[in-house]
Design goal:
Elements lengths: L1 E2 H8 L3 H9 L7 E2 L6 E3 L1 H15 L4 H9 L6 H34 L4
Length: 114
């Protein structure tokens, strides 16, 4: 068992994030000592913490993360990742169009008057 500070160091998640994830029922401690309310995590929690960290880095919202964690088989994860990828690609395309519009606008300001 790992105290929250040890678990935070192992997983790279802050103690505040771990507390928030517990509050949101994303990653609850394996044990909470009733005497002092210390939170303890086990080795099985490391996988879940790593998954949550990766999902966050991939831009998943808390609600999307909850959806993944509620589906303990993770069968829905691939579909969510494909959907997230499509959304990102669409955003990239929209941003590229904005860059092109900026370039055109800048170029039009440099044209010589006749």
């Amino acid at each position: 068992m790992y105290k929250i500070s040890e678990f935070a160091e192992i997983t790279g998640l802050s103690k505040e994030t771990l507390r928030y994830y517990a509050e949101m029922k994303l990653l609850e401690p394996a044990f909470i000592d009733p005497k002092n309310n210390y939170r303890y995590y086990d080795d099985g929690s490391i996988f879940l913490a790593t998954l949550l960290s990766k999902l966050r880095k991939l831009g998943f919202t808390i609600q999307e993360m909850i959806s993944v964690m509620e589906d303990e088989s993770f069968s829905n994860l691939e579909a969510l990742l494909v959907q997230k990828k499509r959304k990102i690609l669409k955003q990239i395309n929209e941003l590229q169009l904005q860059v092109e519009e900026i370039d055109e606008f800048l170029a039009s300001g440099k044209e010589e008057p006749e």
